[in-house]
Design goal:
By secondary structure, the protein is mostly helical. It has helices at residues 2-6, 10-23, 28-52, 56-70, 76-92, 96-109, 114-127, 130-146, 150-169, 175-178, 187-201, 211-231, 234-241, 273-286.
Length: 307
C-alpha cells in the first residue's frame, strides 16, 4: 500500500489498506494511512474540479493547500503532478513566470517529466527574452530525447525549429514588448495597449518636452504604430509569429528569419506623425480592427494531469 501511494496510485493503495483493516480493524498504521489518503484525495479532487470549471485562481489556492498541508513531502511522484497541475492553472491565467517556476519544481522531483518540460518551454517562449528562448530550446531538446513515438519526435522537432527562429529574433525589435505585452496577448489587449501608448506619445502631450525628448517620443510613436499595424491584423501577426521580419511582412515571398524580396519600407515608417494619430483616432471612433478575432492564445506543451 505504501509503495502504491508513493507512486501516486492512491486508489490502488486504498484497496490494499481496506484488505488490511478487513482482517485487522485495529491496525493503527493502516487506519492512519487511510485517513491521510482520504483527506489528500478529497482536497486534490476539489482542486481538479476547480480547474475543470475554469476557476483557475481557486484551483491555484487549492493546489497550494494540497501541497502545503495534505501531501507528504517525501511523496515526490504525487507532488510533482500537483506542481504541474498548478503550473497549468498559471498558464491558463497567463502568469508564465509562475508557470515556469512550478514546472521547475515538478522537474526537480521528476527530471523525466516530459509534460513539464514541454509546458515550461512553451511558457519561456511566451515570455520571449533571449535567455528564456534558449531555455525553451533546451527543454524541447531534452523532451525530444525522452519522446516515445515517432509522432512525438516529429512534433517536438517542429517546436525546436520554431524556437530557434524565435531565438534569432530575440535580439531584434520585439513588437509585443513595444506594446508591453506577452506573445499570447488577445486582440482587445493589443488595442487597449496601443490606444494608451498612442495617447501618451501624441505630439500634444510633448509640449513641455525638450527637443531630444520630442524626438524620442516620435520614434517610439512610430514603433507603437508599426507594432499595432502588424499585431492587430491576424494574417500579419501569424506571419510575424512564424519568424518573418516586420520589414518584410507584406512580402508573400518572405521566409522566417529573412530572405524575402521586400520593396521599400514596411508599415507606417514613412508617414507623418500627426497623420498616424489621425488614423488612430478614426479607427477608435469608427470601430473595426485590422484583422480577425484572436482570442486568448495559450501556449501549447503538455496537457493537464489529473493523475
Amino acid at each position: 500500500a505504501e509503495c502504491l501511494f508513493y507512486q501516486g496510485a492512491m486508489d490502488d493503495a486504498m484497496k490494499h489498506l481496506k484488505q488490511i483493516l478487513g482482517g485487522d480493524p485495529d491496525n493503527k498504521e493502516a487506519f492512519q494511512m487511510v485517513k491521510l489518503i482520504r483527506n489528500l484525495k478529497k482536497q486534490k479532487e476539489l482542486a481538479d474540479a476547480a480547474y475543470k470549471s475554469r476557476k483557475y485562481n481557486d484551483a491555484v489556492e487549492l493546489y497550494t493547500e494540497t501541497l502545503d498541508t495534505y501531501c507528504p513531502k517525501d511523496n515526490e511522484s504525487l507532488r510533482s503532478k500537483l506542481y504541474f497541475n498548478r503550473a497549468a492553472c498559471h498558464n491558463a491565467l497567463r502568469n508564465h513566470e509562475k508557470c515556469v517556476a512550478d514546472c521547475t519544481s515538478a522537474l526537480e522531483l521528476n527530471p523525466e517529466y516530459t509534460k513539464a518540460l514541454l509546458r515550461r518551454a512553451a511558457s519561456n517562449l511566451l515570455i520571449g527574452g533571449k535567455a528564456e528562448c534558449q531555455r525553451g530550446i533546451n527543454d524541447y531538446e531534452r523532451a525530444y530525447e525522452l519522446a516515445k513515438t515517432d509522432e512525438e519526435e516529429h512534433d517536438i522537432k517542429e517546436k525546436i525549429q520554431a524556437a530557434k527562429i524565435q531565438l534569432k529574433r530575440a535580439g531584434r525589435k520585439d513588437l509585443y514588448k513595444i506594446l508591453g505585452l506577452n506573445r499570447d496577448a488577445t486582440e482587445s489587449e493589443i488595442k487597449k495597449s496601443y490606444r494608451k501608448l498612442a495617447m501618451k506619445l501624441h505630439p500634444d502631450r510633448q509640449a513641455n518636452a525638450t527637443p531630444e525628448e520630442k524626438e524620442q517620443a516620435e520614434a517610439k510613436f512610430r514603433e507603437v504604430n508599426l507594432a499595432h499595424e502588424i499585431l492587430s491584423d491576424s494574417q500579419k501577426r501569424t506571419r510575424y509569429d512564424q519568424g518573418v521580419d516586420e520589414q518584410e511582412i507584406d512580402d508573400p515571398h518572405a521566409r522566417p528569419g529573412g530572405g524575402g524580396h521586400s520593396h521599400g519600407g514596411g508599415g507606417f515608417g514613412g508617414m507623418d506623425q500627426e497623420m498616424l494619430f489621425q488614423m488612430f483616432m478614426q479607427q477608435q471612433m469608427g470601430g473595426g480592427g485590422m484583422g480577425g478575432s484572436r482570442r486568448g492564445r495559450g501556449g501549447g506543451g503538455g496537457s493537464f494531469h489529473f493523475g
